[in-house]
Amino acid sequence: MLKEYSLEDKIAIVTGAGRGIGKTIALTIAEAGADVTVVDRTVDQNDQTAEEIRKLARKALAVPADVTKRDQVENVVEQTVSQFGKIDILVNNVGTAILKPVAFVPGLKFKGWEVADSWDTPLTEEEWHLVLNTNLTSAFLFAQSVAPHMLRKKKGKIINISSNSADLAPAYFSSYCVSKAGLSMFTRCLATEWAPFNICVNAVGPGSVLTELNESVLADPEMNKFVLESIPLGRLGETREIALLVVYLASEASDYMTGQTLFIDGGQLSRGSGV
Q1: 176 carries an active-site annotation
Q2: Residue closest to 274 by CA, chosen among 265, 75, 36, 31
Q3: Model-level pTM?
Q4: CA dist list (Å): 131 to 33, 35, 68, 157, 182
Q5: What are the pLDDT tens digits along the chain (275 aa)?
Q6: Which SS3 state, helix, strand or coil, does residue 232 take?
Q7: β-strand pairing of 156-161 with 89-92
Q8: Which CATH architecture has domain 3-271?
């Protein structure tokens, strides 16, 4: 490994680490040399990720938390500092999606309705706030909580997992797209504020990636065809591919990069479509 890509002796926090992209990020960061605090609401999945990290001969701390609650976020940070003594890397990966129309017109289906959680029940105010709080506010809370530990030592890396939906606008994805666009802009704003303290803040924008969450949807041949046709490379992304980009952003190799959202989506954005 090139020394600039090594995460040896680094301490990382990864949210949403119980499964999918978050789990792969946690494991890949550990593989690159970091010790990791893994955060997820599902205790058994969170513990499993921590155990797999330990099998890589790295240290792991599993802290279950609702990342939309300030006191629980602060507890994650406090436990990490207590266990490891510092925080070098924060990966805000946790996310959720509720795919419903903004309004319902009887008998009217918008393109892509097959992927929606519901095409005939509009998004509620509570659901709107749930998605924004999970995908966006959680990153704000974690940034505020790690701030004293990174700003004082004038060093740190924050990586927010956005989405190419920050730039796309498929039907039924309103709350998700808005939350991810907000996360990309929050990335830029935080990068500007913290650049004088040598803290790099970047985002990764994955496209369609095969995870446990979308496995059942993509098992349908028609839906699988619909998704693949939106990707110029003609295939889904892999969680490992996303995680390797995160390792780069967490490492010294990216020390001159900040305020960016790096899209990794097989070319969906270049075609201007996607789900």
Answers
A1: yes
A2: 265
A3: 0.93
A4: 33, 29, 10, 25, 12
A5: 799 999 999 999 999 999 999 999 999 999 999 999 999 999 999 999 999 999 999 999 999 999 999 999 999 999 999 999 999 999 999 999 998 888 887 777 776 666 666 767 889 999 999 999 999 999 999 999 999 999 999 999 999 999 999 999 888 889 999 999 999 999 999 999 999 999 999 999 999 998 876 776 677 787 788 889 889 999 999 999 999 999 999 999 999 999 999 999 999 998 765 55
A6: coil
A7: parallel
A8: 3-Layer(aba) Sandwich (3.40)
Residue 263: which of 274, 252, 251, 250 has the closest Cα?
A: 274
**Beta-bridge partners for 60:** 36
- Token pair, residue 43, equals 């205790």
Residue 270 three-state SS: helix
Catalytic entry in 5, 172, 176, 256:
176
Query: What whole-number distance in Å separates Cα of residue 6 and Cα of residue 151?
Result: 22
**Which residues touch 219 (CB under 8 Å, ≥6 apart)?**
none
Whole-angstrom distance, CA of residue 142 vs CA of residue 145? 5
Q: CA-CA distances (angstroms) from residue 160 to 58, 95, 200, 203?
A: 23, 11, 11, 4
Specify the 3-state DSSP secondary structure of 117. coil
- Per residue in 99-118, is it b (16+ CB within 10 Å) or e — as a string? bbbeeeeeeeeeebeebbee
Domain borders along the chain are 3-271
Q: What angle do CA 177, 182, 198 make, to 5 degrees?
A: 135
* Three-state secondary structure string covering 173-229: CHHHHHHHHHHHHHHHHHHHHHHHHCEEEEEEEECCECCCCCHHHHCCHHHHHHHHC
Query: For 134, how many CA atoms within 13 A lie in the half-sphere containing its CB?
Result: 19
